[in-house]
Amino acid sequence: MTAYILNLLVLISVYAILSTTLNFIIGYAGIFSLAHAVFFGIGGYTAALVAMNVTPEFFVAIPVAMAAAAVTSLLLALPALRVRGEYFVAASLGLQVLAVTLFSEWKSFTGGIGGVIGIPAVEMLGYPIYKPWQFLLMSLICLVIIIGIIRILVHTSFGRSLKAIRDSESAALASGKNVTVIKTLSVVLSSALAAVAGALYAFYMSFINVQSFMLDTSVLVMAMVIIGGTATILGPLLGAALLMLMPSVLTYLSFLPQTEIGSIQQIVYGMAMVLLMIFRPGGIVSSHPGGGK
Amino acid sequence: MLFLQLLANGLQVGAIYALTAAGFSLIFGSTKIFHFAHGATFAIAAYLFHFALTGLGFHWTFAVAVAAISAVVFGVVLDRFMYAPIQRHEGSFFTVFVASFGVGIVVQNLLGSVFGRGFMSVPTPLSNSVEVMPGLYLSPLNGLAIGCAVICFVALHYFLTHTFVGKGLRALSENPELVRMFGLSPRRLSTYAFALGSLLVVPGAIFTAAGTGINPAVGHHVMLISLAATIVGGIGSLRGAACAGLLIGVAENLAMWKLGTQWSEAITFAILFFFIIFKPSGFFGRATVS
Amino acid sequence: MSEQLMTAQEIEKPAPGSGFTGSTDGQDVLLEITDLSKNFGGLQAINDVSLNLRAGIITTLVGPNGAGKTTLFNMITGHISPSEGDVSWQGESVIGQAPWRIARAGIARTFQDLRLFTHMTVEENILTMMESGSWLWQSGGKFRKAKRLDKVNQILERTGLTDKRHTRALDLAYAERKFLSLARIMATDSRLWLLDEPASGLDPNSYNLFLRLLREEVKEGITVCIIEHNLDIVVNISDRIAFLDQGKLLADGEPQAILNDPALAAIYFGER
Amino acid sequence: MLRKTLSSIAFAIGLASAVSVQAEDIEIGAVFPLSGPNATYGDIFMSGADLAAKHINEDGMLSGNLNILYEDSQALPQQGVVAMNKLVNVEGVPFVLSAFTGVSKALSTLAQRSQTVAVNGGGVGPDLAELGEYFWNVIPLANNEVGALARYAVEDLGHKRFTLVYVDDPLGESILNELEKTLPTLGAELVESHSIAASAQQFSGVAARVRSDNPDVVYVASYGSQQLQIVKQLRDNGVKAQIASYSAFSVPELQSQAEAQGALFTTQSIEWGSDDPVTKRFVDDYKAEHNKNPTSYIANYYNAVRVFGLLAQALEAQNKEITGANLLAQRKATETFELVGGEVSFQDNGTLLAPIQVLEVDGSGSGKVVSVKTAE
After folding, report:
1. Are D225 and B117 within 8 A, CB to CB?
2. Chain B residues whose beta carbon lies within 8 Å of the beta carbon of residue D208
3. Could you tell me if C18 and C101 lie in one domain?
4. Is the model's pLDDT at B288 over the cut of 90?
5. What mean pLDDT is reported for chain B?
6. Residue D259 in this model has a pLDDT that exceeds 50
7. What is the mean pLDDT of chain C?
8. Which helix (H) or strand (E) holds D265?
9. Domain-ending residue, one of C160, C189, C218
10. Which of B146, B177, D77, D177 has the highest CB neighbour count under 10 A?
């Protein structure tokens, strides 16, 4: 049982990293990306590649994964600088679909749909980490550090600039904000931190394939942010925990037909999205109930 | 010859995309509601058509009516009971989008639970191709789909330019205040927009059910394509959406000349991505950056 | 030619009673607009406008709706690039520069629809205006930070928003929002303020506070250009008036001269 | 103890526990797609496994009641690993039924680490043979199937030109490799191969290209609902060539599809009419229960559970604990197993060797056997 709970907790913390980093651009910068799974994937594949060919050292694999995601994220920054709202959502959607095709086709890097098998256990300064509780500790520390970084950022001048751009881009421009640099920086940062989640995921599962990095994942993470509450620190964490626990809890409801669990789970979160948007657009953890954006 | 065949296939697929995209574009253009659940409307129409025809054994005309009514009712209900309350309190683009997306997820899974998750298609001799010239095979469905799309567009054009409601809808996209001054309620026009926009998915849904077949995720795919077409064509421009839908259908198929099918979706979205970066206003759209 | 004429006029009749600067600072040209035109797909929004904004005085842009006043602002601040002509700020052209660069060079503006940072508190709204660095931190360390906070307090005090410090801009009353909009540009160190209908809809008390603030700032050496419809306000505050109609600058001169011109009045009140 | 904690937690949050079982129950797990687009396979696999458990319990082969715990993989690797984790760490089962190549590969690492036997009876990707000694296959893998079909099509039917339409995944690739290798040795050729995305729905373009290849045989390597669309659209678009495929075709939707009639496919050869008591009982009871003929998938998962029953029975007789390690040792010690389809033995790599039969889709629900090819 403990191992099962540890397993769930590891997955929750990985997804919490994703939702926290996505919230950084959705909630604070107003960049509604549906391509977060792309950077999750790039982080995972890069870490796997480094671990299998160079070294499974945490302090090598994770920075390389972050760098790879940061560089690729410029592709997302490009439309983010040009357009907003529905145009950007569509552009990020485009990027996500393109990335899935590339992940499936670039077999030397990703193994295609077959994926990458046998990713070695991660080592921290030469000490291998494979026991579930060690791994949980490591991912929790990563999560805490990332939350810390984001918490600090949103309370500094950079965070204020982001929020200013989110609320009114033209006014931010008129007040001397270099919108280009600020937006690019936020996208790069968010993507690089999402890559940490990807690397942890790859090490934990020791197997990754494209199915973990598709549009569904982007939507799931977006749902975590929205349901939990945008522009809050706690919201995305709560959202990640709720949505990751839901399938497990549902399997214990013996009166539900097993074959419908997957559908019921999706219906529940679809309904949650609808009802929240009607009655509480700020999400469950909303700093200002009733007030959306 | 392969080229011609692919072009013919592309035109049929493109006609269906064009109609669906036009529906989305009409709704989005006039009400500014990002109706992502438009794909769900498509799936519902397709499934109910299939069910009425093969499950209940209706005559095809009744099955078409069932599909049309269900699509319109679904669209209007969403407008009245979901979008209207959201818009009442400061409904931003994203709030609407998320709710709409949620509906899409719910519908997809409900359809899966009720009708099964497998692939279904309406058995019809119309989908059988005949060789019209060496190497070029066309099915009656090819012609019907294209013809039906043309008729729909002519009718739509007439409606928008010659009827009171149609003119109101066009005015709504330009200036909601003006509409109010002319004594039309934007709320009521919004209902018309949803009814009409939803109706436009019906031909596509029926041809898909009879041709390539449907599964619960079909709406999702169609929605992605119509979204791409709407933006490539220019938001708010029906003409643009239609042209772009056609373009995407053709591009998707012509791509198969040299590449595997796994690239077809990527090609659509590559077109979209580049349009957004280099010409966000699309073919015919007004410049509406930021 | 006409420019010289007007300058001469002003020296002859210094400071009409209506304006409140009363200084001769108005001779230095801070911002020079030359032959500016803007074409929106066949629609001539601005047609060959030349206008100078002189240092230390209040210039008011008047004219009927759609005259191109806001478009002119947008071109000065770089939000819109002109089809033709030039805008030079302290002798250097700003055409083609990014809006944020122009802002940092010392031109601040408000918007007709305010465009506050709605989900940020009043304090954050003001503070963020002082932080022009784009990176993750601001230069200057603790000392500068303390100075910034001092300045925020001062501005809050002067605009009467001290009590609302931690209120979101969204939750403010109408007049408070207008003052926040003003507070935001007070926080910048700009020399030129472009105000788009800053006083419209203000109650008498708020209006007086607004006038007092404006007077104080102009005394401190701020140059102001205002778009205003209310003729009372126009008369009350203007040192100079520029009259725009259908994208053209019809007149540019002293308030009395402009307001007494029957032809302009006819246009203004729509009796053409 | 574990179960107690579990139940109390489940009850504590107001939920009924799904696992209210007696202490003497013997449990094994299964990770099947129970929802999602491939759920139809899950239902088929379950019917086979459940029948085997029923037989084992009726016979009292084991000291306790055999119970199968099903978990949903949605045919996705991540869900598969989560489900496997639950089975291994919460339920502590020694033996897990697995399906689908991607899922099987994903959970094989966990199987190896936790010394839990994972048995595949559905996925046929050839690399499934190399997933460690705790991963077994009770199904002949695709390389055997492709060879058998190619030999039948070339030697018995005289076809020469093959075109392949394959899903771009490990299974599809292995079929491509196998065809490229096999056809030239038989004097036939693979004219062209068309890869498709796993999510693709429209194949009219592919059909046009296939037509212009002018093949004698179109080999379709897909699965689930997609293969139905491929077959329909190939036929709709004027492809008249012989359609051929592998065991994925043995699903009822395809067997009853009008366009698929006459298509060839392969499965593990099971002589349904055999007098062998195991086979006879399986076929009779399955027909009685479901009112239709069983397919090889059903037999495979029946066999998988039966293998467990036989091994566990032997272990209990020796007073050994039923653990993954002991099951593995016992399998290595056992020469042959009496399963549905006759006596079979495992290869050293844990994969079953069996003859392959070529069938023709004839609308009967299970296909008509046209040829049986021995394993090579």
Report:
1. yes
2. 2, 5-6, 9, 137, 256
3. yes
4. no
5. 85
6. yes
7. 84
8. strand D264-268
9. C189
10. D77
- Chain D residues within an 8 Å CB radius of B12: 204
Interface test with D, best of A1, A15, A248 (most D CBs within 10 A): A1
In a domain, B290, yes or no: no
- Joined together, the tokens standing for residue C207 give 């209006």
Q: Which pair of structure tokens corresponds to residue C128?
A: 């963020």
Of the pLDDT bands very low, low, confident and very high (cuts 50, 70, 90), residue B177 is low
pLDDT of residue A76: 86
Of the CA atoms within 13 Å of residue A50, those in its CB half-sphere come to: 26
What's the domain range around C203?
A: 2-106+191-268
D276-287 tens-digit pLDDT: 899 999 999 999
Q: What is the ipTM of this complex?
A: 0.80
Residue B39 lies in a domain: yes
Domains of chain D: 2-139+275-354 (3.40.50.2300), 143-270+357-373 (3.40.50.2300)
Question: Between B9, B139, B265, which is nearest D208 by CB?
Answer: B9
Q: At which of C132, C155, C189 does a domain end?
A: C189
For residue C44, being part of any structural domain is answered with: yes
Identity of the residue in A171, A180, A288 whose CB atom sits nearest the CB atom of C117: A171
With respect to residue C112, please indicate whether it lies within any of the assigned structural domains: no
State yes or no: chains D and B have 3 or more CB pairs below 8 A: yes
Q: Is A271 on the interface with B (CB under 8 A)?
A: yes
Considering only CA atoms, give the Rg of chain C: 19
Do C100 and C205 fall into the same domain? yes
pLDDT of D23 > 70? The answer is no
C130 in the same domain as C217: no
Residues 6+ apart with CB under 8 A from D309: D52, D56, D61, D62, D66
Q: Is the pTM of this model over 0.95?
A: no
Strands, sheet with C43-54, edge to edge from the N-terminal-most edge strand: C43-54, C29-40, C84-89, C92-93
* Contact between D221 and D172 (Cβ < 8 Å): yes
Closest to D237 (Cβ–Cβ): which among B1, B13, B137?
B137
| CATH number, position C57 | 3.40.50.300
User: Does residue C6 surpass a pLDDT of 80?
Assistant: no
**What pLDDT sits at residue C7?**
38
A119, A52 contact by CB (below 8 A): yes
